[in-house]
Design a protein that fits this description.
Layout: H1 10-27, H2 32-48, E1 52-61, E2 80-90, E3 96-100, H3 101-104, E4 109-113, E5 119-128, E6 133-137, E7 159-163, E8 173-181, E9 187-190, E10 201-204, E11 209-217, E12 229-234, H4 235-250, E13 254-255, E14 258-263, E15 271-277, H5 282-286, E16 293-297, E17 300-301, H6 305-313, E18 320-327, E19 330-337, E20 339-340, H7 344-352, E21 357-358, E22 364-365, H8 374-399
Antiparallel strand pairs: 1-2, 1-4, 2-3, 3-6, 4-5, 5-6, 7-8, 7-10, 8-9, 9-12, 10-11, 11-12, 13-20, 14-15, 16-17, 16-18, 18-19, 21-22
Length: 404
């Protein structure tokens, strides 16, 4: 799509146009500067609107038993549909869409609504918990990639505008001023957003993407000046993470669901012991336990952690791997089926369930505690075995005679 150039002096033109318009109006002449300003703004919005898309998530569920009205046994079961609507940024022509995680998290089906009104199915490539963003994928689009503002180019007092999805209609637009630049370059913008505006792209007056809307801010009348404000995540910090998520989603590598740590021993050689197991992963299902010492993989002795990780990463999905381990004084063999490495956001979810997550906005995400019972007991037993293992290592090192 041909990009339409926008003058860098558009902000100054605004002030000159308003002043000239009043003068021209008083003289009964046509306010030409205002007409030019209106034409320039229309062209600017038209050039940027293809990159603002709607994001719709749906989740079906049956009503609770207490909510169900009395019905005959032959009556069809009613299904309710939860719908969540937000906005996103079309990052490039390959079909990458950036939005807020809150828009799509937990949804069963996702759709992206383009400027022309076309609705396309979307899939989740991944999340990032620090920035609370989600990256989606749709079919490639016949567009040029948008332009992005450089880091530090937006300062307090800069004019920006927020653009929503048009879907064949006039897109919602909100002009505003950057009030301040907060920690981690988070922008506080004096501009209102509409319902469903979370995730909407923010542009400067050169048509460059500045960021996406993170949240609407409601200030109390007693402490803050009147007017709506929002927080904007800066795009220079988001883009590296977006492309990393895409690369991780497109890369197929082997995974067995464990972490191994190298420990010194009383002998000359080091030992490699399991220090983390992903719950429900291939290694955990095969019977490998926390604290097991790995001796060989498919008959290959373990000499280096990086070499071991590279070997597993290059195994084909579905390959059967034989782990030879030492547990106490017993040598055991465990068969593990290699699986495709899950996306990073899935691994993060497995780990973050055990502790709160500090997000970029400074908010602590509350995570449900694990249910009491055998699950907690199993985790406690694994932790005890790990502590006993480390105590044994310390005893061996203390009992080792120092060199003469």
């Amino acid at each position: 799509m041909k990009r339409i150039p926008v003058k860098r002096s558009l902000g100054l033109l605004w002030l000159l146009a308003v002043q000239s318009g009043f003068v021209a109006g008083a003289l009964g002449q046509e306010p030409s500067y205002l007409s030019r300003l209106e034409t320039g703004l229309k062209r600017l919005i038209q050039a940027c609107s293809p990159y603002a898309v709607g994001v719709v998530g749906q989740k079906r569920h049956s009503p609770a038993v207490a909510e169900e009205p009395k019905r005959s046994p032959d009556a069809a079961v009613q299904t309710l549909v939860d719908k969540r609507v937000g906005t996103g940024l079309l990052v490039d022509a390959s079909g990458l869409v950036l939005t807020r995680r809150s828009v799509v998290d937990g949804m069963e089906s996702l759709f992206v609504v383009l400027t022309g009104g076309d609705t396309l199915p979307a899939t989740i490539l991944g999340y990032d918990y620090e920035f609370e963003i989600a990256v989606l994928k749709i079919t490639p689009q016949p567009l040029e990639n948008p332009f992005f503002a450089h880091s530090g180019s937006v300062r307090s007092g800069s004019w920006v505008f927020i653009l929503g999805s048009s879907a064949r209609n006039l897109p919602p637009v909100s002009f505003g001023v950057v009030r301040s630049v907060l920690d981690q370059n988070l922008l506080r913008v004096a501009a209102g957003i509409w319902p469903g505006g979370v995730g909407a792209p923010v542009f400067n007056l050169n048509g460059q993407v500045v960021g996406i809307v993170a949240a609407r801010v409601g200030w109390s009348a007693a402490s803050q000046p009147a007017g709506e404000e929002c927080l904007v995540l800066p795009v220079p910090q988001l883009l590296p993470r977006v492309f990393q998520i895409r690369q991780e989603a497109e890369t197929i590598s082997g995974w067995v669901g464990l972490s191994v740590t190298q420990y010194p021993s009383s002998t000359q050689k080091t030992v490699f012991k399991v220090t983390y197991l992903y719950e429900g992963g291939p290694a955990a299902r095969s019977g490998i336990q926390l604290g097991d010492e790995i001796l060989t993989i498919n008959g290959r002795p373990i000499r280096d952690l990086r070499e071991m990780a590279d070997y597993i990463r290059h195994l084909n999905v579905g390959t059967e791997v034989m782990f030879e381990i030492r547990r106490g004084g017993e040598i055991l063999k465990k068969r593990v089926i290699v699986e495709k490495r899950p996306p990073l956001y899935v691994l993060q979810e497995m780990q973050f369930k055990k502790k709160p997550v500090q997000t970029m906005l400074g908010m602590v995400q509350k995570v449900a505690a694990p249910a009491p019972g055998l699950k907690n007991r199993h985790e406690i037993e694994q932790r005890i075995r790990l502590l006993e293992m480390e105590l044994d290592n310390l005893r061996r090192l203390l009992s080792k005679k120092p060199p003469r």
